Amino acid sequence: MKISIKSIIQVLLAVFVLCAGPVKSVYPATQDTLQVHYNVYQCDSLVQANATNPDFVILDVRTSGEYLYEHLMGSINRNYYASNFNELIDALPRHKMYLIHCRSGGRSVNTYNMMLGMDFTRVVNMQGGIMAWKAASLPTTTSFGPLLMAVSDTTIANENIAVGAVDTITLTITNRANHNLIFNTISSLTGTEFTTDFELTTILSGAEDYTFSIFYEPIDEVSDSVNFLIESNGGDVAFHILRTGIAPVEFTITLAEGWSGISSFVAPGDPDVEAIFAPVVDELVILQDFDGVYWPDAGVNSIGNWNNHAGYMIKMETEQQLTFTGEMQSDRTVMLSTGWNYLPVLDACESNTVDLFSQISGNIKIVKEIAGGKVYWPEFGIVTLDVIVPGKAYFIFVDDDVVVEFEECP
Fold first, then answer.
1. CB 355 within 8 A of CB 343
2. Do residues 273 and 280 lie in contact, with contact meaning Cβ atoms separated by under 8 Å?
3. How do residues 90-144 score in pLDDT, each as one tens digit?
4. Cα–Cα distance measured from residue 213 to residue 197, given in angstroms and rounded to the nearest whole number
5. Domain at 147-246, CATH from 3.30.230.10, 3.40.718.10, 2.60.40.10, 3.90.226.10
6. Among candidates 164, 368, 360, which has minimal Cα distance to 266?
7. Of 64, 67, 31, 27, whose CA–CA distance to 43 is shortest?
8. What residues form DSSP beta bridges with 361?
9. How many angstroms separate the CA atoms of 54 and 368, rounded?
């Protein structure tokens, strides 16, 4: 009886896999560095553990023909023999985790070593390749269904946007199939108050991440929706986005003569600082934070747009009233860096100083008025600054990166 070389190889692969045996341990997706060679059972555990992890990539380095014949579900393909293979690998995001495989292991080992040399930190090589995977009766697919086009969100939940404001909706589409896969055109877009940064005839090509922006600018207090379809030989994906225009909120701040601190719990519809301060620009000397200044008389504006989660220091020639028109901020968290910060006030109510900063009691050193003598200095039991007032900003010093969250007014 004749025994083919192919049969012998298959038997040896099966023995190799069975001897390796299942491995229960699973690599945690939060680990910073992983540079290892795993058998197929370990790789299967890795795949299952990262089924919903957008930063996990199965990288198939076989030829396009091999990939089209069968592949692991959700994998992307980079042809090892392509003339620009090095460039294709180098273009991959460094923060993601990659499980590399080929047919039997040779090409994936070389790719693994190359990626280590390119400073990829989370790289796993599948020992034995797809042949060992199949010998262990693990699944492959020939399908190019909609799963090959993963979308961040296909139905975007409703949000209320103030009339006159502009909301930017960002969509990321990942073509997980062969890098030669061609998307057809984006076929339809409706919604009179929606605009986009792409043309309806856009062609997408390649196993890459594509990011689109859709802009919603309500002109009245009604609900709007936008629907569009991306058609592909990898499956169609329909998007549905809901938005509602609402009446803008107004918040008026008293700007004291001289120096003071300023912030706003209302996000302005037009964030351009020159537009915001236009009504008082003749009396404005300077607006500044740690990153930039707006100095009208000198023609300097390195701030650009108002940061809704920042506080500013301002100097006025005379006392003035300034009105912010837009929408109430729904995100009332402030991220503070180690050292000095400007603290904005992101709710419409006064807050008890001790209660507000109890959430960072182990890291706060001092809070003080930007122009005034009141302070909160817990280390020495000093609380002359007993309330935190909307519209103002304060100096705050913390000994670590922390987050302060303002509660919604009762």
1. no
2. no
3. 988 899 999 999 999 999 999 999 999 999 999 999 999 999 999 999 999 876 5
4. 6
5. 2.60.40.10
6. 164
7. 27
8. none
9. 43
Tally of residues, the chain = 410
Q: What fold characterizes domain 5-142? A: Oxidized Rhodanese; domain 1 (3.40.250)
CA 330 – CA 198 distance, rounded (Å): 29
CA 122 to chain centre: 20
Q: 384: which 2 tokens? A: 């002359």
Map out the domains of the chain as residue ranges.
Answer: 5-142, 147-246, 249-326, 333-405
| Threshold 0.70, pTM exceeds | no
pLDDT per residue over 148-158, tens digit each? 444 555 677 78
